[in-house]
Design a protein that fits this description.
This protein has nine helices and eleven strands. By secondary structure, the protein is α+β, with helices and mostly antiparallel strands. The termini are far apart. 27% of the residues are buried.
Length: 364
């Protein structure tokens, strides 16, 4: 028996008719439910409140995330600062003189200008190079740049390399050796000088026996009198380079231009902690001669010329020792032209007997 007839004449099955009758009583599963009387009363009360529009009884508004404007701005600022430091560290450190302590790259060519001022920080025993450009320089032999060796004239690349290494060894033995700095005789350095170069050998013999302005061992060697001066720490800062070219009669000519910075203090017991930096810049031209053309000994060089600039090393009668001034003596030290001892942008001007007085350092 049919359960019912549709308006178009079709009939429902018994099962469909039974489901229709059941849903008309219980309600369909997907049909919206009518709000309760309590829900309708609450909605009506909220509508009567001024400026208040209630949410629908079946609506949902997701919560808005809290804005953290301050944190976002701070994070953006930090990111920008890190980016600038990464891309232009020199510009950032230039804004704060004296704060850059990163090692300076080796000098391979003559700089175009003097290094910037590092501020007015005074040196201490723990930081004897504080406040000076030398604080960023390398120590000892590491600060003397040696170029790559190539064959020159009749010398192979290996022979040029040995000559360059020995030239640097002379600078170490003459201006960095701890015994020589304490006043000892520079035997190792002298052993590298051609013993058949008569004028130089005469100079060496006289300079240590009777030092004078013309025959002063300080023209080639750095020496302090231990009874008066003590070096501060174990580090001497250096900056400079070696260059080479073909010389006369098939020789290899090596030029050394190096600045040495020695921090020192008074030797006497009970003295104050005043630290003075004695600064010596040396320019030497050495000739590694062909033994078939020049009388020489293997492993030795002839000295072609030597120049130097010494500041804070004393201005009195030559004694064969560097004599840095302390206390009130510093104000009276120097009667010649002013000089920036850290400016390596121009060649050394003072020769073997320049006679232009004792220069006054503009900074140390």
């Amino acid at each position: 028996m049919g359960g019912g007839t549709e308006p178009d004449g079709s009939s429902k099955s018994d099962e469909e008719w039974e489901r229709f009758l059941h849903e008309s009583v219980t309600g369909a599963a997907d049909a919206p439910k009518e709000p309760s009387a309590r829900a309708r009363a609450v909605t009506r009360r909220l509508c009567e409140e001024p400026g208040r529009t209630p949410e629908g009884w079946r609506t949902y508004t997701p919560a808005r995330p809290k804005r953290r404007t301050g944190w976002y701005a701070a994070g953006l600022l930090v990111s920008l600062v890190l980016l600038v430091v990464a891309l232009a560290p020199g510009w950032v450190t230039g804004l704060f003189p004296g704060t850059d302590s990163s090692p300076q790259a080796a000098e391979t060519v003559r700089p175009g200008k003097a290094p910037p001022t590092q501020g007015s920080q005074r040196p201490t025993r723990d930081e004897p190079f504080r406040g000076a450009p030398a604080a960023r320089w390398a120590s000892g032999a590491a600060g003397i740049s040696v170029p790559e060796a190539e064959a020159v004239g009749g010398m192979t690349a290996s022979e040029v390399e040995r000559a360059l290494d020995s030239s640097r060894d002379f600078l170490v033995a003459s201006s960095l050796d701890r015994g020589v700095l304490r006043g000892e005789h520079p035997d190792k350095a002298i052993a590298l000088i051609n013993p058949h170069q008569k004028d130089v050998q005469d100079f060496l013999g006289t300079a240590f026996r009777s030092p004078s302005e013309k025959n002063d061992p300080l023209l080639l060697f750095s020496r302090f009198q231990p009874s008066r001066v003590h070096l501060v720490g174990d580090v001497v800062k250096t900056r400079g380079r070696l260059t080479y070219e073909q010389g006369e009669r098939g020789a290899l000519q090596v030029t050394a231009d190096v600045t040495f910075v020695y921090p020192v203090t008074r030797a006497e017991a009970g003295g104050d902690d005043e630290i003075v930096r004695t600064i010596v810049r040396r320019e030497l031209v050495l000739s590694w001669d062909d033994p078939d053309k020049v009388r020489t000994e293997p492993g030795t060089f002839s000295i072609v010329s030597y120049k130097n600039d010494i500041t804070n090393g004393g201005c009195g009668t030559p004694t064969g020792y560097l004599e840095p001034p302390f206390g009130t003596d510093r104000a009276a030290d120097g009667d010649g032209a002013d000089i920036d001892p850290y400016d390596r942008s121009a060649p050394v001007e003072r020769g073997e007997s320049s006679g232009d007085g004792c220069r006054r350092a503009t900074r140390s």
